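Render this sequence as a predicted structure.
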Amino acid sequence: MTTPALPAPVVSVAYHSGFGHTAVLAEAVRTAATEAGATVHLIKVDEITEAQWEQLDASDAIVFGSPTYMGTASGAFHTFAEASSARWATRAWQDKLAAGFTNSASKSGDKLHTLQFFTVLAAQHGMSWVSLNLMPGWNSSTASENDLNRLGFFLGAGAQSPNDQGAEGVHKADIATAEHLGRRIAEQARIFAAGRAALAA
């Protein structure tokens, strides 16, 4: 007797991009998650519609993305986070998976604080955080700025793009790191969906 195939996990990438850099990362997450078998929705939080809120409600995983401005997520992303309180009140996102990515012009730029903001947002909603699960790159004399996770983040994907360049300035290694995050969230969502199906059987 064969086990029926499970439906593809649904992943939504909820992001804001001020100058195009974070949009490049969002696209990388979407591409890799799709290639890993997920159905992926790309949602610009500063243009979100009621139908897209419903897509978030129906997702197995939500990946948060924002540039880091003045040491935290952008104002547009904060507006979205506050608006999600309607979902918080009904526990609509409880037990979903969450992950995140961010970009700033500086190599640090206090990006860690943005990723921590995402984790607290996820915790408020009762979600389970999925880390990057990559060893740090570019941390020895034989390493390279072209390494995956070249900036050495663990909570999520961090990227650095020069402030005098547009979307073309996003580093290829940072795009590859975002792709890794997309594959990882899709794979973890599939595992969670299989577990739920096994418990329900």
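Summary. The longest strand covers residues 61-69. The beta strands are 10-15, 39-44, 61-69, 72-73, 97-104, 128-129, 157-160.
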